[in-house]
Structure to design on (697 residues):
């Protein structure tokens, strides 16, 4: 074993006998890692000019974006990045960066970039020739902003993947649409993307085709085709493609869909690698509360009768009308409580299905007059309007709708509380994400390309909540933690919207459908300008640091600006389950609680020990692990944040083998009542906690 690995592993050497961690060993491991590995493999250059010239001439960097800047400016940016005297806070963060993110020679032997070099290249690339933005981007990333993995990894490289790795597609009930979307999935998986596909509009098993009864094969064969597509298009064998399929709980095939992830499921429906999610309207919980049956329907009938797809209607609003309509077949009755128990059993066994609370999403949707949010992505935080494409025969032009690419980045909460200008940090992040969106075309998937052009959607999120709370002596789930995240996310919402207005003012452009939005009508601001101002406790106030309080008057002024200039982005905020990027910055992931005070990550030939950020023997008790946190308190934290997020927050629930289905159902119902929009995995203790496979390196 290499010296630095042994030192890192020695963090736990005396833990069993003394109960204390030898954290100094991790710092020494980091130092030895640089001496024995990084410095030995690093290619050194005489100066910055030689470095950049070499990397361009040898085909490592794109020449075009470098050519937008003068040599003096580029050198100034490198000098600026190095002036922060950045040091990796842990062995995990250093090894993760140099193994997975830093540019290397084609044979893998030489390291060609330091951390600061990568930051500068990202900034120059995303600034698109704007020196002021490039400079602010360096400042933001060296302090508190972290682009998502594909952006951080691929920016500026000549041979690169896409800047995003997450997509949503709408599938229609035609063979043309099914075939086209499978093709899109192959293409997006090849590019390294995880893909969400909505199957709700496909007719169920036994439905008629061309008027002939019992001909439709249902949604499961299509799900199997998608699973095979992702397995086949596996990014040159480096990792399996990843996808998720969603289905409304009132769809005729819902029982087979729920059973598909069970270990003992029939091979005809068994989904081994494809993720599943269900869409649950309010009416389902109402029927369950009254211990009533639910009735399953066919989207084929709904479309014939109403001219709308099942995904396009509110099942809560139309349920009883569908029951009363003699032209709508009632395919099957299921007791709501018994059915939901089966859902909970499946989640215990596999972690699936994810759940999307349909009306929580759409009632709060700022674009509800434009259309409904039908589904989510692989990690359940992206909740955007989609417009289904009409795929015609080959001799006719297709009518492309709007699908989604997830343009993500995250604010490090801890560092954000220390920056001089939180407003400038957020504006810079929004401008960088805007350029990620405009630079992501995905020409081979026209509905995604069209949406990026028209919707300008991004997903700015946050991470390191638990770490920041611990560093301020605040327990996760306490009232102080709830007050803190409430005010922090309100400020993030306010300044992201303010930035979007500024961009609209500069460009004279708003997103497609803006005139129908709650921003244009002013309705979006009612909750802020009409609220009662409440004081917060001293602990929360101290934890906010330099993050400003946003007053009703500020919201009123912003409302006026919005109505004068418009809004550039259709969507702005989404809190993703940050994985690799959390390790690099030594952050706790997303706004989630930690699962272990000290993570043990096993790789092919080694083990890495990762103590949580700011962990000491004195504050270890504050680092309560997720499985020991009251799940209702966890939901309260997420609910406080969700109020200010126009999309969703990827929320995992943590259970032990002592739980039963009734307990789990109560927690989900509580999440629904608190306005939570989605629930990602159910994780049981002792299971390996993985990041979203679409973002994983």
């Amino acid at each position: 074993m290499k010296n630095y690995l042994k030192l890192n592993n020695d963090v736990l050497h005396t833990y069993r006998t003394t109960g204390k961690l030898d954290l100094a060993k991790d710092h020494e491991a980091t130092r030895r890692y640089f001496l024995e590995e990084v410095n030995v493999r690093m290619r050194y250059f005489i100066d910055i000019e030689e470095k950049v010239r070499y990397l361009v001439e040898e085909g490592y960097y794109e020449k075009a974006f470098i050519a937008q800047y003068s040599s003096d400016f580029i050198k100034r940016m490198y000098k600026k990045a190095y002036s922060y005297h950045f040091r990796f806070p842990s062995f995990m963060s250093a090894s993760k960066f140099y193994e997975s993110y830093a540019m290397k020679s084609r044979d893998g032997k030489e390291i060609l970039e330091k951390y600061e070099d990568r930051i500068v290249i990202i900034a120059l690339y995303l600034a698109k020739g704007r020196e002021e933005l490039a400079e602010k981007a360096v400042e933001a990333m060296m302090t508190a902003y972290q682009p998502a993995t594909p952006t951080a990894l691929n920016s500026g490289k000549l041979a690169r993947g896409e800047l995003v790795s997450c997509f949503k597609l709408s599938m229609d009930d035609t063979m043309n649409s099914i075939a086209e979307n499978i093709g899109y999935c192959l293409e997006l998986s090849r590019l390294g993307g995880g893909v969400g596909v909505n199957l709700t509009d496909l007719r169920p098993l036994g439905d008629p085709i061309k008027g002939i009864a019992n001909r439709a094969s249902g949604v499961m064969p299509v799900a199997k085709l998608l699973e095979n597509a992702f397995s086949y298009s596996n990014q040159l064998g480096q990792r399996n493609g990843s996808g998720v399929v969603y289905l409304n709980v009132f769809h005729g095939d819902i029982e087979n869909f729920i059973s598909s992830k069970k270990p003992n499921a029939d091979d005809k429906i068994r989904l081994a690698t494809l993720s599943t999610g269900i869409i649950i309207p309010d009416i389902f919980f109402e029927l369950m509360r009254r211990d009533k049956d639910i009735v399953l329907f066919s989207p084929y009938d709904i479309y014939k009768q109403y001219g709308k797809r099942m995904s396009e209607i509110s099942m809560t609003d139309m349920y009883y009308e569908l029951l009363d309509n003699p032209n709508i077949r009632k395919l099957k009755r299921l007791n709501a409580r018994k059915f939901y128990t089966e859902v909970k059993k499946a989640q215990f066994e596999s972690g699936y299905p994810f759940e999307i609370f349909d009306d929580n999403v759409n009632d709060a949707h700022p674009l509800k007059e434009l259309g409904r949010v039908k589904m989510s992505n692989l990690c359940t935080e992206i909740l955007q309007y989609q417009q289904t494409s009409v795929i015609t025969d080959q001799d006719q032009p297709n009518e492309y709708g709007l699908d989604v690419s997830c343009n993500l980045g995250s604010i490090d909460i801890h560092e954000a509380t220390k920056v001089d200008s939180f407003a400038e940090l957020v504006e810079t992040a929004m401008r960088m994400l805007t350029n990620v969106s405009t630079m992501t075309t995905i020409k081979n998937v026209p509905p995604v390309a069209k949406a990026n052009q028209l919707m300008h959607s991004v997903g700015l999120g946050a991470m390191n909540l638990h770490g920041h709370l611990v560093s301020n002596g605040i327990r996760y789930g306490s009232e102080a933690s709830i007050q803190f995240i409430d005010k922090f996310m309100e400020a993030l919402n306010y300044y992201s919207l303010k930035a979007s207005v500024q961009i609209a003012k500069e460009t004279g452009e708003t997103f497609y459908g803006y005139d129908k939005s709650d921003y244009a009508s002013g309705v979006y601001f009612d909750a802020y300008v009409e609220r009662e101002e409440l004081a917060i406790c001293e602990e929360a106030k101290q934890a906010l640091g330099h993050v400003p309080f946003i007053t009703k008057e500020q919201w009123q002024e912003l409302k006026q600006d919005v109505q004068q200039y418009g809004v550039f982005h259709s969507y702005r905020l989404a809190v993703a389950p940050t994985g690799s990027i959390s390790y690099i910055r030594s952050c706790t992931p997303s706004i989630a609680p930690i699962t272990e005070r000290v993570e043990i990550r096993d790789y092919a030939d080694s083990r890495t020990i990762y103590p949580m950020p700011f962990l000491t023997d004195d504050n270890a008790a504050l680092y309560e692990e997720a499985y020991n946190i009251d799940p209702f308190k966890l939901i309260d934290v997420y609910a406080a944040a969700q109020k200010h997020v126009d999309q969703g927050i990827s929320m995992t629930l943590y259970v032990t083998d002592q739980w039963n289905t009734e307990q789990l159902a109560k927690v989900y119902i509580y999440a629904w009542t608190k306005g939570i929009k989605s629930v990602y995995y159910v994780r049981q203790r002792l299971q390996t906690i993985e990041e979203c496979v679409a973002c994983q390196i």
Residues 687-697 have pLDDT under 50 and may be disordered. The first strand starts at residue 145 and ends at 147. The domain at 144-163+406-593+629-651 is CATH 3.20.70.20 (Anaerobic Ribonucleotide-triphosphate Reductase Large Chain). The chain has 30 helices and 16 strands.
